[in-house]
Write a structure and sequence with these properties.
rod-shaped, 2 helices, 52% helix, mainly alpha, 67 residues
């Protein structure tokens, strides 16, 4: 009977200790991480500079190209 009482008291002490530690934020539970999407690859038709250059070449075909 005494052994059961000691086990119950130890269990209660451990429970309250864990609750206090969690409430203070000393040992926060790890949060699962979301998987990040890989960066989206932009094609040349999505690049505003490329499109602007195409538009300039179409409007002014006599201009020399800038390299």
């Amino acid at each position: 009977m005494k052994l059961l009482l000691v086990v119950i008291l130890i269990a209660i002490a451990v429970y309250y200790t864990v609750r206090v530690i969690q409430s203070r934020g000393i040992a926060p539970a790890p949060r699962p991480r979301r998987q990040q999407q890989p960066p989206r690859v932009l094609g040349p038709d999505d690049d505003p500079d490329f499109l602007r250059d195409l538009d300039r070449r179409r409007k002014h075909p006599e201009d020399p190209e800038d390299l």
